[in-house]
Specification:
The chain has 429 residues and is an alpha+beta fold. The protein is built from nine helices and 16 strands. Helix content is 40%, strand content 24%. Strand 11 and strand 12 form a beta hairpin.
């Protein structure tokens, strides 16, 4: 009887020592990872402590890539080893089992385990212990330990302890990942802000000064960067190129293509090409350098301040409106299809007089298609009405009236597209 009692006391003491050791291990781990923000450091620490406490040769934390449409795709984010063997990666069959069961798993004889028949395990894997990393019942990854040291197998106590470590660590791993995502998001935001500043720097800072003419231009991107642009390019003392382009899409991709188009147009303008030739060459360059489905519309005109004419070509852009004091408004439509559709597309041009008191309004569809909460578009007719009502305003004043009217019209509805406007007025004389 006494012998039996002594044995019980020894066993109780052993369990008590183990419980104290486990609590110490968990407490040390909690303190070690609580102060860490870098996810790699967090996972390296978890793996290192887990390998030590259960005497494993290797450990791996595999995080599920939840941004992927393929649910089984994973990211191996951290691995540790105390052996010279190559580092193991989590088997997809094992990961699938974890996705389905979401509970700890011990495999002490991989080659003969009925749960994984037909699985080709690495020849060096003698046994493994895998536990899920769960956050609010969602599996964010798994912690897997391989090969118990001294040729032994993993026990139920090892499984229980590793499950506790995983339960304690999963939220910390998730928090560190979210922290890194947040840092990356803010970094990208900073880059976009810089890109926005660069893009705004590419646009004319001041309108050109031409005797007898009043000119203004402005672009408001729907996002921090946009796909619209306008430009004034001085050719010589008598001629000024005026252009407005609209690239498909919004955001950074559209902004990059816009910068490419702007550089192309400026280069061709300085070669003293005609509007139709400029459109032809710009089209071919865009066809060669962009993917299918990426295109741009462009109005390109050359204002002659001596002959008082504008020679233009319109590559699929919204038809600008030329209002005269003596004639009905005319629409400048002569040109061709948008840039980037078909190589070697032919463009034509037209020369129209710019009479005293005339006003040319060039705009992007972000203005005419500005929509209110009743799904009604601002439309071209409102632009013409504003020009007629405020024909005595300066170009800058008229520009602001149109932009303000379009913005007020869509008040309460999100800005759907970039808004860009150019106004060219000739004095009445």
């Amino acid at each position: 009887m006494k012998e039996h009692q002594d044995q019980n006391i020894i066993e109780d003491n052993r369990r008590l020592r183990r419980a104290v050791d486990e609590l110490t291990t968990l407490n040390d781990l909690a303190r070690a990872i609580a102060a860490l923000r870098d996810s790699q450091e967090v996972m390296d620490t978890i793996i290192r402590r887990s390998m030590k406490v259960v005497h494993a040769e290797q450990g791996v934390i595999t995080l599920v890539d939840r941004t992927e449409e393929r649910a089984m795709k994973t990211l191996v984010r951290a691995a540790g080893s105390s052996t010279e063997h190559e580092q193991f990666h989590m088997n997809q069959n094992l990961l699938g089992w974890m996705h389905i069961n979401k509970k700890p798993l011990v495999v002490n004889d991989p080659g003969n385990d009925n749960r994984f028949r037909g699985v080709n395990w690495h020849e060096s894997i003698r046994c493994l212990l895998c536990v899920p990393l769960l956050v609010k019942s969602e599996m964010i990854g798994a912690l897997t330990l391989y090969n118990k040291k001294e040729e032994r197998t993993f026990s139920e106590e090892d499984q229980r302890l590793l499950a506790i470590i995983a339960g304690q660590s999963a939220q910390v791993v998730e928090n560190s990942r979210l922290y890194e995502e947040e840092k990356e998001y803010f970094r990208m935001q900073d880059e976009v802000k810089v890109a926005s500043q660069i893009q705004m720097g590419l646009l004319p800072k001041t309108p050109p000064q031409i005797s007898g003419y009043d000119i203004a231009g402005k672009s408001i991107p729907a996002q921090l960067v946009g796909g619209d642009y306008f430009d004034f390019i001085r050719i010589d003392d008598d001629r000024l190129a005026v252009c407005l382009g609209d690239v498909t899409g919004k955001g950074m991709p559209a902004a990059l293509l816009m910068a490419n188009l702007q550089a192309t147009i400026r280069g061709h303008t300085l070669m003293d090409l005609s509007p139709k030739e400029c459109a032809f060459r710009a089209n071919n360059l865009l066809v060669q350098s962009t993917d299918l489905g990426k295109f741009a519309t462009l109005f390109y005109g050359i204002l002659n301040s001596v002959e008082h004419t504008i020679c233009f070509s319109n590559a699929g852009h919204d038809y600008p409106c030329l209002l005269s004091q003596t004639r009905e408004p005319s629409r400048l439509a002569t040109g061709g299809i948008p840039l980037g559709f078909v190589a070697d597309s032919v463009y034509v041009e037209e020369v129209v007089p710019f009479n005293p008191g005339s006003c040319l309004i060039i705009y992007s569809d972000g203005i005419t298609e500005a929509m209110n909460t009743q799904d009604e578009e601002f439309g071209e007719h409102r632009i013409c009405e504003l020009v007629l009502d405020y024909k005595d305003d300066s170009a800058a004043q008229l520009l602001e009236r149109i932009l303000d009217a379009a913005t007020d019209f869509s008040s309460g509805a999100p800005m759907r597209d970039d808004m860009t406007l150019v106004v060219v007025k000739r004095e009445k004389g």
